[in-house]
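Posting for a labmate who doesn't have an account.
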Amino acid sequence: IIGAGMTGRALANYLASKDVGVFVTEKNYLHPETRNHFQKMGIKFEEGGHSRRPLQSDLMVVSPGVPPTIDLIKEANGSDITTIGEVEFAFQLSPAERMIAVTGTNGKSTTVSLIKKILEFESQLNGNGGE
């Protein structure tokens, strides 16, 4: 997992709970609570920069805040390593046939609220009582 922000940590926790070997790389230093949690969960990690270790993986999952232009990702893209974003990875794990994903820097909460209202309205029109 490239990036140990909120979603990177959540993904690491999820995968560790499924007994999947996880390695997290973070360019910054981890908060001590995150470091301790990773150690307790058996999640391997590095902080303060990206080494070449993730290039030994079968799959690299890139957090939304990580620019696709960093050397690590460019090198992975030129190899046999599958590189996908967290949203794509979550979609592949989901049993849902359809999914709405909202990404970006600004306006996510507003957009999600609007989508919720549209879906509630559609449900009422279809007689599903808001479900």
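Reply:
Got it, the structure tokens are right above this. The chain has a mean pLDDT of 91.
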